[in-house]
Amino acid sequence: MDYYSASKANITGENVAPNLIKVYVREVVSAARGKMSAEERAALPCVLFLQGGPGFECGRPDADGGWVGEMVKEHRVFLLDQRGTGRSSAEIVRFNEDGSCKVAFEEGQGATADVHMGRMLAQCFRADSIVEDAELFRKTVLGKEQKFTLLGQSFGGFCITTYLSMHPEGVKEALYTGGLPPYVEKEAAAFDAYVKLFERVRVQNEKFYARFPGDVERVRYLCEYARKNEASLPGGGRLSAEVVQALGFSNLGTASGMERLHYILENVDVEPTFAVPLAHKLLIEIENAFRHFETNPLYGILHESIYCNGGNAYGGAEKAKAKLSGTSFDVDAALTTPGQKIYFTGEMVFDFFFDDIPALAPYKGVLDCLKSGDTGQFRRLYDAQALSANDDIPVACASYVEDMFVDFDLAAETASRIAGARVWSTSEYMHSGIREDGARIVSKLLSYVRDEDPIR
Fold it and tell me: What is the value of pTM for the model shown?
């Protein structure tokens, strides 16, 4: 069953009227319960899944296994397309003839398009607004007496932490999978978080090159080729050395990701003169690695906003990488030393994304507004005092020791600030564990919050 709920865009400012956006929620139940009456179904406990991101809709269930199959044994499962994604008013942006951005559901802006767009994104499409959408759905569709079991993957766990801070009355129990946010008391945590994450990324690079030592030369060649030639990708993007580095974005830290990355690079034919064009298949594979920005640009635009907890954290990735000048993360420095590895970067969004990736180029002005702080105050996302006073809501966290997206040490620090949180620390999975073995992971977490697996 599908649900739509109208939620306020809650933008404030001169000549800006409040507007409504559509929020989409999909309900999943087991086939055996498909013929239940509405009353019988309403009596079932409810799970709300909060998707990773920011800026991605929920995956569409297409099989009876995994974490969904496990959860529907007892629950109704609700898949929320977070505002601005999927079927939840996803087309939030239109473009004027000059290429500037215009808010799709706004007419007559009191400021320039980019500034207005930046303000809207900063104030209306982050975790606090996502939580308010979920609460509106809970109260108006399910009823105020119904509470959610929250399941949050990656950024979805950041949203859970906001939920526990803002609306604990709507939560029955909370399950995190690789998503404990770092530095919940810092106003702007991106720089500090990325300094730690770059060390995790370095370790993953070393593992990759240990498995595929022949790729050291291929990566060096590809980066030097990009420095020597004006190379374009088939869709119009620019093949820069930094784009090559960014192939680590979703490959180094997920199951089978190293294999995917290697199979892209095996299409590199090292040619000493750098005069032979790169293989078309290679260029297509590189372009495909960033294709998600075409349908989900919010992921790039709002990525560092998840670290804005009352302050402006934008520019954190750039500053953290700048500290690594002269290392293997520095392409030009590495190319001066024969045989030196060039490291891939991780799940960070850098300024060059908005120059070299065509899908993000129209938003460069929006990004500049967000970075400058001209978009208005970023609201706080976490209440450390409320988290430490969490006496009634059971919390369980799957925390992955070798996670390249959410630093394990910082996650442990946050878990210690949530009263009653139990942590399952494991190196069995990467950040994508819920996709590979979701049934086991959610079953383990449920046993924690329900004391079926006693504290030891």
Answer: 0.92
